[in-house]
Structure formats: C-alpha cells, structure tokens
C-alpha cells in the first residue's frame, strides 16, 4: 500500500509541475530543474510500484506515468492537462483499488 501512496504523491507533484510550466519553453531554469527532479521521483516510485505490486497494476501505472511525463514536458499539443490525464488517472486508480482488494 505504501508504494501506491508514494506513487500517488509523486503523481500529484508531476501534475502540479505540468500546470505550473511556463509558457515560453526554456525561460525558467528553476522550473526546469524542479520538474526534472519531480519526474525522476515519479519514475522511481513507478519502478517501486511495478516491483512490489500485482501484475495487473503494471500497465496502468506505467501508462499514467507516461501521460504525466507528456503533460509536464508539453508533448500533448493544445490538449488541457486535466483532459490528457483523466483517462489514465481513472484507469490507474481502478487498478490500484483492485490490487488492494485482492487477497
């Protein structure tokens, strides 16, 4: 359960970074450095979760992490961050609940 909680906390940090990204790319070295650290922590949490969780959670956690990465680095075009993430967040949450409910 702790690995799921850690991933969720890192996902929230990544989402916050995606929303706070400056419009002009490369103009804010502090944001870039912070976002890089946030994403590194997210990928570490993702790897921990894959290592410690049910196989049913592996694909949803990776897909959600990838969607967060795309949102942070603005590889989503004109799509709003929340719109881009919603489907992946819901799938991850459902898989995490299922993983916790299984014996």
List keywords for this structure.
103 residues, mainly alpha, 80% helix, elongated, single chain
Write down the overall mean pLDDT. Answer: 93
- List unreliable stretches of 5+ residues: none
Helix count, per DSSP?
Answer: 4
The best one-word shape is elongated
Order of helices and strands: HHHH
**Which structural class matches the secondary elements?**
mainly alpha
The largest sheet, given as strand count, sense and whether it forms a barrel, is: none
**How many angstroms does the end-to-end distance come to?**
13 Å
Structure description:
The protein has 103 residues and is an all-alpha fold. 80% of the residues lie in helices and 0% in strands. The protein contains four helices and no strands. Helix 1 (2-20) packs parallel to helix 3 and helix 2 (29-52) packs antiparallel against helix 3 (55-72). The model has no long low-confidence stretch (mean pLDDT 93).
Give the helix/strand layout.
Elements: H1 2-20, H2 29-52, H3 55-72, H4 81-101
Helix pairs in contact: 1-2, 1-3, 2-3, 3-4
Task: Give a brief description.
The protein is mostly helical. The protein has helices at residues 2-20, 29-52, 55-72, 81-101. It is elongated, with a radius of gyration of 14 Å.
